[in-house]
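On clarity, I found the account of how folds are encoded harder to follow than it need be. For illustration, here is how one protein appears when written out as sequence plus structure tokens:

:::
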Amino acid sequence: MTWFQAIILGLVQGLTEFLPISSSAHIRIVSELWFGDDAGASFTAVIQLGTETAVIIYFAKDIWRLLKAWFVGLVKSDTRADPDYKLAWYVIIGSAPIAVLGVVFKDLIRTELRNLWITAIVLMVFAVVLAVADELGKQTRDKLTMRDSFLMGLAQAMALVPGVSRSGGTLTAGLFLGLTRESATRYSFLLAIPSVFGAGIFSIPDVLDRSGPGVQASIPQTVVATIISFVVGYACVAWLLRYVAKHNYMLFVWYRILVGALLCGLLATGAISAT
């Protein structure tokens, strides 16, 4: 990997991680279009540590409050009715599906599921699903339940397939469950922290081993890409929270359909390779 490639991929990661358009799909597409090869699932997972660090800093007060309530609740049973204690458990419960499936299907995620035909089709299909959820979701609730957390966790796990979008999956599920856009978005941010950090740390050994296929990044390049994704991602967190408070998700729906259709055209004409 060149330094230019590392910088570009860091920018792409920071710009797309929190939007319901799939950051892993965009890194996969940009890698193939500009560099003629795949940067790999491991590199993608590691530089996501930058964007999740941005989430931790942005929601530092909320995260501290949840952690405090959770630890206190483990010791004092009379505090377990605290909404923060319950929300902390909901984050843990919602993180379980992607942790289990990520380990079980590790090899499949890093090989067959990165086929660009799959990415293109998934981008368009889940765009329609998001549009339906945004249109039909009642958006009458702002408090989660255990059922909500588990179902949104299952939806997050679908993002192991590039093109689904981790945030898009959780937001879609939240809207179908009747949550408001703001509530679904905030929970989506919190839910991402354990899963993305877990995937990133789990993938570090694979990034250090540069003998695999595709474009291989050096350690300094990976660090720089991660820092760039952090800086850009921090700005995107604030923007998205303001955006969803006043707008629906149709901008992202049409964007996903456009990108998916263009990708299908490039693949069909042989302009780029699917694998």
Q: What stands out?
A: The two ends are 18 Å apart (CA to CA). Residues 3-268 form one domain. The chain has one domain: 3-268. DSSP finds twelve helices and no strands in the chain.
